[in-house]
Amino acid sequence: MSDHTEAILSAVREAGARQCPLYISAGGSKQHIAGRRCDAQILDISAHRGIIDYQPGELVMTARAGTTLVDIVAALAAENQILPFEPPQFDGRATLGGTLACNLSGPARPWYGSVRDTVLGTRLINGKAELLKFGGQVMKNVAGYDVSRLQAGALGTLGIMTEISIRLLPRPESTITLCYEMSAPESVAMMNQRAGQPGPLSGAFWLDGKLYLRISGAASAVKHTADLWGGEQLDHVQDLWAQLRDMSLPFFAGDKPLWRLSLNSSALPTGDPAQTLIDWGGAQRWLRGEFSLPELQRTAQSAGGHATLFCGGDRNSEVRPTPGALAQRLQRRLKYAFDPQGILNPGRLYGWL
Amino acid sequence: MSGTPPHYHQALVERLQHCLPAHCLVQDTESQRVFDCDGLSLYRELPLLVALPETVAQARQVLQLCDELGVPVVARGSGTGLCAGAMPHPEGLLLGLSKLDKIINIDPLARTARVQPGVSNLSISEAAAAHDLYYAPDPSSQIACSIGGNVAENSGGVHCLKYGLTVHNILSLELLTVAGEQLTIGSEGLDSPGYDLLALLTGSEGLLGIVVEVTVRLLPRPEQARVIMAGFDSVAAAGDAVGAVIAAGIIPAGLEMMDRLAIQAAEDFAAAGYPRDAEALLLCEVDGTSEEVAQHSTRVSELFRSLGASSLTVSTSEAQRALLWKGRKSAFPAVGRLSPDYYCMDGTIPRSQVTHVLQEISRLSGEYGLAVANVFHAGDGNLHPLILFDASDQQQIERAEEFGAKILELSVAVGGCITGEHGVGLEKLAQMSSQFSELELLQMEDIKHAFDPQLNLNPGKGIPILKRCQEYRALPNRQQHE
Predict the structure, then answer these.
(1) How far is B411 from chain A (nearest CA, A)?
(2) Is A333 close to B177, i.e. CB distance below 8 A?
(3) Which residues contact B377 (CB under 8 A, 6 or more apart)?
């Protein structure tokens, strides 16, 4: 639980001097997912951990990047607060820094926001071994560019985050899960209709012919909405949502490549329903099987989104679609602005970055 | 405009006449005068030319031409900004986007609206109302302010405690680069591959690109909303009451505080029934299903009473709720009637510091001999002190600006920031160095450079450009700041 900023700074300085790239790692829970394979020398920052400041009354916490989510969630539980973005904890190994770098959020994401939405400020070390602070501990802050949120999904290619401030939420007073038997297309229609009504929805996923809706909030509102919406009320299903969050449902088991489609939430489902899980009220869909990225990308693009090879398959090739020439040029220039020597996680996001 | 016109002036005019109809080009000084400032009228400048494209294709051509000739470009929406971010450049083109004002499409099932940048914030919610949906961020200027400007400033409003800022409520942008190339940023999904340019562009104050289309998320209109208004005998007591609401696990839709001078001015203006004798006023809105609203408004009322509220009113109708908000939303013009001019500050502070900061502001008010009224987004810590002064007195202007700068430095010193929602623009450029180190400013300069290598987009605003290397020294003086 101590501050290793100086050690990380000197590791980056040395890597720069020797032009020897680094692969940033802490809990190691995402080494084989989200990005491409990166063979650079491992920089382990897992010792750089610990909650630095937690002000329940301000709904704000600041923690070192290597702090595990399990530690954070435990501290929050003592104050009856939660991480709004409900991130996967991956057997307790997932850290706050890795979660933001991969922009991973769980079932509550469409309603409570993503980790990107929740971040208020970061301290980070860029590829020039400069320790920089952006944003802060307040919710409204428009001074300068939003460099903190720019780290979300950058997979550590712009900087090594050392500290992160996030916004919190009170734990909902009450939660009920409703279950309905229906097909995938019917479930997408229903998820979107319900999300357009003023009920306290906090989760909506479909798997194996069943739609699950989670409603959370003031006890009176949850009960009233459950009565209004009907369906089968499931008890003791906290584990179901935790397994969905941690991607530990049987659907995610096995070696078949796992694809992620991020789409217009109302897009009609395509593909084999037996190999599909629809989450985020329709906006995030998981697909198992052997596909080609260009093939799935065409499907995703026609539904207003994109496809990613999230886990398994060939991780030496691109795992996300290559953007057009202009977007590529801007991303290369941004990378250069933060890491001119290209020593931070080279190739992790794209082969050309 | 004074001095010699820049060498490109004639070529620019001639070639613009080929890409824009005559009524889209404002050349004469008198007609340009309405564009010489934004909502912060202390800062004024006439542009070389004003272009008001009617199509995205025209906007692209204008940018391509300016890029070719090296002409500075300042984008403008409705001109309601409060940091001189849209103040024209004397040697540049003002690109007004007000004629791009169509709502292109509303998708009620996916809950999104595709709109052009000149569409006003409020008209999105008005158009979505047919589907019982609305666009959540609601700056006080929402009748007039444009969605393009909201993106440029990452605007908030009184409801952002619960529903977030612009950055949380948009899905994608159509962006024109400084060279007039078009790029889609974001998607119809909730995230996109690669760097999060949507986050980077939101709040970038027209320094990185020009937004020509926005897709926003719409939310279901809450079944019900109710305002609890409470007066308190001290700012400290009101501050404690704010903390108690959060500690009770309630996230109000809005939570606003006003001090005595602001209460009295607002009551004179709106006759909303505010308690004139209170030292501090809280307006707390709870929304959701009817059951939730009933449960939370009872709980908030109990908390306010137990923490010493001297008066308490709970709205019982939509009309009453609207009236209670009217006082708050008209607080700026109401305070404006107390004095020839007022200067609105925008620092954000940790909520726990509010009593200390307001005491300091009161002390500084005495020191500078200028009265101040405080309006505070208490839920999210965004403080708007309104400094009263007379702009016909140069000395008072200087005192007001110095007083304002002190407040911003104080905000940073207690762990906050210099601007919560109004932006840096030209106004707060000097205070950027109190919030950021030189290395941090240089990193932001490198980001600017990645998008706009010649520094032609809104030069001299947002990020102070430091003199550091040969390539920058080659730039004209107008784009450099110490």
Answers:
(1) 11
(2) no
(3) A140, B156, B158, B160, B161, B255, B256, B383, B384, B420
